[in-house]
Amino acid sequence: MAIPQTPLALGAATYARRNCPDFLFNHSARTFIFGALVLEKQQKRAYLAEDAFVAAIFHDIGLLPSFETPKESFELDGANAVEQWLLKQGGSKAQAERAWYAVELHTGEWALPLRQGPEAMLIFLGASADVDGPDPGDLDEKQIAEVLAAFPRLGFKHRLRTCWSATASASRYHKRGRGWKACVGLTRHIRHLSIGLKKSSLGRRSASSTVAPTCGVNTPTL
Q1: pLDDT in tens, 58-76
Q2: Within-domain flag for 31
Q3: What's the domain range around 106?
Q4: Model's pTM, two decimal places?
Q5: Which DSSP string corresponds to 135-168?
Q6: Rounded CA separation 108/105 (Å)
Q7: Between the CA of residue 104 and those of 116, 185, 194, what are the distances in Å?
């Protein structure tokens, strides 16, 4: 399965490399690949690869201090960031809207991304597979091994849990009207990081990592 090589896709990857810690960038790339594989396996739905890839690359960027805002959830901060970036790069309003919804809904319930469209569903499925572990039969061990060889986890489980825990404790998640979604969603994902990854080789590889936890910015060489 090929990663899109369009100018927008490559630009998004470059932007994320410059702004994201290495483990978060790799998670975003795995989200796209796993999402595409699972979407094909489960639903066989056509999707716009460029739009889905850009959304995947941005889907967790709202966790980073440089992208967070005082009042919004990390999903909304990430959705606004990808919308603004796409429009600035010459993407269409339709592309920006698709990416916005895909990022905003990636921690929601199944029915929301399913109804929104295949790009949103791809991000939802890919992020779930990488964080919680894939459902039985969705991905085979060879596929998982190839993806992890290309985009290693780098202590992902522990480092992302550190990011989410820090974000969930921030005042912005407790002092706004939309706080129920952020608190419930983050609590659910923190719990899954503790128990969900144990059901696949994704979890076993992550558990063996010795990389120190951090949510700081790393700029690996392109």
Answers
A1: 999 998 888 888 888 888 9
A2: yes
A3: 7-207
A4: 0.76
A5: PTTTS-HHHHHHHHHHS--TTHHHHHHHHHHHHH
A6: 5
A7: 11, 12, 23
